[in-house]
Write a structure and sequence with these properties.
Order of helices and strands: HHHHH
Bound molecules: zinc ion
Radius of gyration: 17 Å
Helix content: 40-55%
Shape: elongated
Number of domains: 1
Distance between the termini: 22 Å
Largest sheet: none
Length: 126
Amino acid sequence: MKLYSILFGACPKCHQESMYTVKNPYVLSDTLKINERCSHCNTKYRMEPSFFYGSMYVSYGVGIAFAVTAFVISYLIFESSLTIAFIAIVLTLVGFMPIIMRLSRNIWINLFMSFDKELASKGAKT
Ligand SMILES: [Zn+2]
């Protein structure tokens, strides 16, 4: 259940709408802009002003996961040289940076909030 919110940046409590003001993470000026509250269940996303600073720690982990994936694909599957594999890692990290940053935030907020069936169904009926 949490996976849906993490992958799509949906409200962690009701999954009814995106937390982000602009859905496309590659609109770089808006990559990290999130709404104040969910218009469906009224959840306040930013529980405290510095809430999302903690997601930086998550982004290290997510970044490493992307780097390992890039390495496995280029070095082990395409049998590239280590230099090419390294370039692939850098390009992957740069290219996916907006996604990595959003994923980290999504994971972070989902550590603190959980899907609430009642909120979701309440929202769906109205
Ligand atoms: Zn919601």
